[in-house]
Amino acid sequence: MSGRGQLMWDDAVTGYDFGPGHPMDPVRLSLTRSLVEAFGLTKRMPVVAAPAAGESTLRLVHRPDYIEAVRRASADPASANGDFGLGTPDDPAFAGMHEVSALIAGQSVGAAEAVWHGGVDHAVNFAGGLHHAMPGSASGFCIYNDAALAVARLLELGAERIAYVDVDVHHGDGVQTAFWDDPRVLTISLHEHPRTLFPQTGFPEETGGEGAEGSAVNVALPAGTGDEGWLRAFHAVVPDLIAAFRPQVLVTQHGADTHFEDPLAHLAVSLDAQRAVAEACHELAHEHADGRWVALGGGGYAVVDVVPRSWTHLVALVAGAPIPPETQTPEDWRHEVYRRTRQGGPMRMTDGRRPSWRGFDDMGYDPADRLDQAVLATRRAVFPLHGLLP
Fold it and tell me: Which active-site residues does the annotation give?
């Protein structure tokens, strides 16, 4: 089930830094890169630094006046006053913001180009997945929406059907917005219910614009959902829709903030379940998209204990060298963690769980269960639009 993989990386992406105390600490990127290196994954596939996304590429998703506003705030951070979402507590301006945001976007666009042109089967940019940025504003720690730009570039190259699956704890609102009226793009987001978490969107009734009905899919999970419920919801919704849509490329976003240790959200998912969903996405790419898979990072604010391990598993799958769950973390890497953060690094690569789930179709559902209610609401909203029974 493995294919030729490629890792997108440029050391300069760690310059995506909103400053001390901000949850989006770039150490999560550098520690992930070090753990990937410690497992020898960079010897199993090429590491490619794509150029930054240029103006014409950024305009595939973002408005020209917004791009210009980012440039101004990047050159003079003190001038940002909240216009276009820049200079806010979530998205404070910083010097070089435009350049590093465009660089991260360039890695995701480069991943999409490599997969579409056939140079590789899979490509991963764990620095990407900045899915909240809107066409005309920053939002939720995101300046340019690299995920939407990767999809838009695939459309520009001639792709006719692209599936985007987002398993970040937060709704993938920016990507949904970018393709709301485009039936060529199926966006599926599994996230904590909008009543309890930013960005307060992603209800099951959000199903796409006129002429693109059923192109947006939202599974709004109750706070507290753990491994069994999360996996049950994923497998009750995603595989059937992917099979019906028949994408030419699968783009996935793997925010690690569903984890029970994440400080900004309220799901209770383990690393083992995150790894299982990444495996499932890999399999879906081979089953329905001729192996074409673009994998992105996303949120994740347990920057030492969770993010590096979760995304290293993702990179390992792309490389065709999955890391067994019981594997210990390399000692040298744990020493680096302590040197950089004065925290002890985790000892093993997962949480030691053995996640399982009950199938929705073969095991039935409980109408009194909040998780099953959420799944059924999504299936009723979109499955008939794809010729499927709810």
Answer: 132
